[in-house]
Write a structure and sequence with these properties.
8-stranded mixed sheet; single chain; 31% helix; 227 residues; alpha/beta; Rossmann fold; globular
């Protein structure tokens, strides 16, 4: 079911302008944009400091990135969400709480290289990305061979991708693709909430709903090896 457009969406988006770094796409053709358009961020200018930068792709309503930013004030965070209706909630919540170390990108993940400098991100979070089990939609999965080169280009050497999902099939697919691409996969758990990683885990609203139904949460870390 299509989400109903929020009331006064555009003026509310404008009021979040200090947090919203970019919105939309520079041209209709995503491939052309990703290959040819560059408007790279200068992180010290964006955040006012030279702290390390981490990235969440698919931030949803922003609960995870907000809590992560609270816990780690010496780290800067970029949160990506393609849906304006959804990212608005995340931005308004961060503005209300006065969280200083989060900025937002309302863009498709395919064009991240248009704005993020190469080798500039310490960590990428993929929390409950849509599994898209249909074979015809494999290229749209955020852990498909279409996206892994993008993450590789953005991550510093030794940087990593942290994935959480409630889908066993998507998890197994992702582990295989990470390894095929050359990432070193570790910290694998098929029941996050009963694992050694549970204490430091930030539970998202989506995650809580599924966990309360007795469904296990899957988690792994894919590390970019130094070359």
């Amino acid at each position: 079911m299509r989400m109903r457009k929020k009331r006064h969406l555009e003026p509310r988006m404008e009021r979040c302008g200090e947090l919203l770094l970019v919105r939309g796409r520079p041209c209709l053709n995503l491939k052309e944009a990703a290959e040819n358009f560059r408007a790279l961020f200068d992180y010290p200018t964006v955040f006012g400091n030279e702290n390390p930068v981490e990235l969440e792709i698919g931030c949803g309503n922003g609960g995870f990135i907000a809590e992560l930013a609270r816990r780690n004030p010496q780290t800067n965070y970029l949160a990506v969400e393609v849906c304006s209706n959804v990212i608005l909630t995340a931005m308004e919540n961060c503005m209300k709480e006065g969280i200083p170390n989060v900025r937002f990108l309302n863009i498709p993940a395919e064009i991240l290289p248009c704005y993020l400098p190469e080798r500039s991100v310490e960590k990428i979070y993929l929390n409950f990305s849509t599994p898209l089990p249909e074979t015809s939609r494999e290229k749209q999965r955020l852990t498909s061979p279409r996206f892994l080169p993008i993450y590789d280009s953005l991550l510093k050497e030794g940087g990593c991708i942290v994935q959480k999902t409630d889908s066993a099939e998507f998890f197994d697919y992702s582990l295989a693709k990470f390894r095929e691409y050359g990432f070193r996969v570790g910290e694998v758990t098929r029941d996050l909430h009963h694992s050694e990683y549970a204490q430091e885990n930030i539970v998202t609203e989506y995650e809580r709903n599924f966990s309360q139904k007795g469904m296990p949460i899957y988690r792994a870390v894919a590390v970019k090896e130094k070359k």
